[in-house]
């Protein structure tokens, strides 16, 4: 099982898939920072002064980390960034689920889709599960890297 | 975490910051943002409002409010001037619109009524076409804005009152209320626009003139945010079109497209 989980065949595919997801997620945010800022505002977790700078910087860091994973360069840093971001997303969405603050996640699309409160709450639960899945993918990368380090 | 991981992590973040700042510097006007925004209630969770139970049917609104709307648009439950909702009763010292009471009343004291009450209330006299907007919509310096519904908005539109569209400029260009100006709170030039408006209306008597602000209705707060900004610089007669542009379209009222008001 350990060999299967850390097999280079699996690791390279997980790495590219996770990288691609982050690149795809970053592009609409880079294209329209004000809409992404609006999404961040809706989370009601960041002070006013940090909303714009987060909306500007976060997508670029996402893009760079995603590209690094796809290209296989700076994998350790990219893994760290992506794991941290996924943890932040999961916590942020979960807090808002707990507070019954229905929001659009803004993960892959920054346009307001005019959903109802119930639809948004349902989507947020799906988003948490999706992010947990991605966190598992990141976990596989960490595990494989650790085994690789031990072997060398 | 070893040195390599730490270095790469920091390098990725720094590269991201540099790229973000450069990209923002070269971004088009409606994509650009100030690095530090100012958004009231950024940490305040809005309360989830469920739709109130249907109220008693109201008679159709006056001709003044439905001249360009199709007959079918004036439904029995359409809010009239009597049902304009003020959800913001602010303490000027606190200046926090979320800490409000939901007592309902109209801009004019004579027409106050509670919209959540299922008991039908008597209707005030309908507005006359030549009535002064200031008489019907007097300044309210103690609160940043008053929410109004289509009937009042249409009436004010007929009086050539200033309309501000708080949605994104790209959305504004796809369709807006005729005469409205684009004032997106999310775009970098909002402070310049607000300053320009202040210069245009620097006289206190001009600042007391009604201004209607709208966005996309529903849970859209951009119009409220813009009202807060304007209220902060002495504009004291601001009205937020509660149901926003979708409601305007639903009523079949005239719509302009393009960048010009």
Short key terms for the protein model shown above:
heterodimer, A: 152 residues, 6 helices, B: 261 residues, alpha/beta, Oxidized Rhodanese, domain 1, 2 domains, five-stranded parallel β-sheet, 7% strand
Beta strand count of chain B: 5
CATH architecture of the largest domain in chain B: 3-Layer(aba) Sandwich
Largest sheet, strands/sense/barrel of chain A: none
Helix content of chain A: over 70%
Poorly predicted ranges of chain A (pLDDT <50, ≥5 residues)? none
Please provide the ordered H/E string of secondary-structure elements of chain B.
Answer: HHHEHEHEHHEHEH
Commentary on this structure:
The complex is a heterodimer of chains A (152) and B (261). Chain A is mostly helical. Chain A is 81% helix and 0% strand. Chain B has 2 domains: 1-30; 63-250, Oxidized Rhodanese, domain 1 (3-Layer(aba) Sandwich), CATH 3.40.250.10. By secondary structure, chain B is of the alpha/beta class. In chain B, strand 2 (162-165), helix 5 and strand 3 form a beta-alpha-beta unit. The chains are: A mainly alpha (152), B alpha/beta (261). Chains A and B meet through helix 3, helix 4 and helix 5 of A and helix 1 of B.
Quick recap:
The complex is a heterodimer of chains A (152) and B (261). With 152 residues, chain A is mostly helical. In chain A, 81% of the residues lie in helices and 0% in strands.
Write the layout of secondary structure elements.
The complex is a heterodimer of chains A (152) and B (261).
Chain A: H1 2-5, H2 8-31, H3 33-43, H4 48-71, H5 75-99, H6 117-151
Helix pairs in contact in A: 2-4, 2-6, 3-4, 4-5, 5-6
Chain B: H1 3-25, H2 63-66, H3 133-136, E1 146-148, H4 150-158, E2 162-165, H5 169-174, E3 181-182, H6 190-200, H7 204-207, E4 211-214, H8 222-231, E5 238-241, H9 244-250
